[in-house]
Amino acid sequence: MEDISSPVEFKYTVKLKNYIRQEGEDFLIWANYEKVDLVKYYATISKREYPVTISRLQTFHWETEIDLGEKYKVKEMPESVKLASKFGEFETSYKQVDNKIFVRSSVKYLVNKVSVEDYLEFRKYCQQVTQAHKEEIRLSYEQ
Questions:
Q1: Which member of 8, 36, 70, 119 lies 3.0 to 4.6 Å from 133 by CB, making a disulfide possible if both were Cys?
Q2: Could you count the other beta carbons within 10 Å of the beta carbon of residue 50?
Q3: What mean pLDDT comes out for the span 71-96?
């Protein structure tokens, strides 16, 4: 790393066991295998006595390519989501090309301290981001 102020980028391939689960005749997969749970990290309680501190203002990007193979077909895909607040920005989008699904997501932190007065609004934003990032893709299996 010659310039320590430049963003760090990781690229990797993952094979996940038990990534797909059956529900009736359909199959479900996570749209995002990388879990973003802002509620768990910052907003677990309903009321604060002290401000929330976010250690670093960061932006995270994920790009996922899901190869369905020949037998699985998309039955239902989540809607793309874009959320913006004074606390941060979140976006996730889905696109299918042939037998592949491409998922792009990003989370950007805009503040590093959330006041007690702003906490409920912040918590709502965290809940929306967490829920949007937990979406699943419904597939059918054709023999």
A1: 36
A2: 8
A3: 95
